[in-house]
Design a protein that fits this description.
Structural class: mainly alpha
Helix content: over 70%
Strand content: under 5%
Oligomer: single chain
Length: 128
Amino acid sequence: MSEEKIDELEKKKQELEGELNKIQGELDNSIDQVREDVSSSLSPKNIIRKHPLPIVGASALIGFLLGHKRRSSTTSTDKGGDFSGALLSELKRLATRKAINFATDYVENILEEKAEEHLSSSNGAQEE
């Protein structure tokens, strides 16, 4: 009789361990999914894709302010000032190029999506 109880307890123990392993696996999957969701939603690329116009506007404003500040302040004529001015100018040029490339890619993607929607809707109308 005691052997039956021991066997029953061992069986219950194994069932509980199985349930715990299952719960652990589900928790691990949930944590991984939350981690992926948070990292993708906070990714700079995704933020720029969701809000391209405000980002481009802010970039242009920052570039204007930096350029305006540079012009309005008195510049030193030593080589260090020339180097920092050239560096700042190059950074502004690169930022402008990146912003234009991003805006162009964004518009191209929108146009491609619209074209695909139009083609799929016109193909559906022809099939009927």
